[in-house]
Amino acid sequence: MKRAQELFSPEDHQAITAAVVAAEQKTAAEIVPVVANDSGRYDRAEDSAGLWLGLIAFIITWAMYPTVPVEVGDWSGNHPVVQLAAYVVVIVVGYILGASLATQIPGLRRLFTPAEQMSDECWKAARAIFFDKRVHHTADATGVLIYFSLYEHRAVVLADQNTLDLLGQERINELCREMIEQVKSANLTEAMTKTIETLGIELGKLLPRQADDVNELSDALVIIE
After folding, report:
1. Which residues cross the membrane (predicted)?
2. The whole model's pTM is what?
3. Which of 15, 103, 143, 181 has the most crowded Cβ, counting Cβ within 10 A?
4. Are residues 26 and 135 both part of a single domain?
């Protein structure tokens, strides 16, 4: 998986910034686009991958390791202690290998991460950025955060109170779903710009730009590594 910094070319950054500028020419809302590599650490997913690989390694070793009764005084066979040591070693090695692979391969780690957990982590991260980037701090409570997390393949749109009251939570949820579908059929830059354009059109009718409107937040794409 490409990291967010590598995913966007200078032209992509320019396209997204231009989309924000164009949208804010229509509306008093302040739109902030953000893309993050991931929204959570997901240590449990790595542990789960390690446990599964350790278990598989144990089963394979157990099936291949012949169990021969050992008589008292007979040192020619495989002693149970040796077998037990072998089992412990393969389980530990399997666990370490599985956890390491899950750390390095996002797709593998995602298999062991519950969808609900990924959604929760994305919401938490988006809310944190909403405050860290001062999207909530506009004069008329008109900030809108468009957040996409690469690892989870999830989008979150958060609107400050004034904008939320005008758009409605149901429409905001629809925008999230539409953006995710657009990412599947196009690239993330196109999906981002399309979502920004849609917001500009809809908010232009509900919250039109005023003559004395001041640009309070940066129009540039924010990358969270």
Report:
1. 49-68, 80-102
2. 0.78
3. 143
4. yes
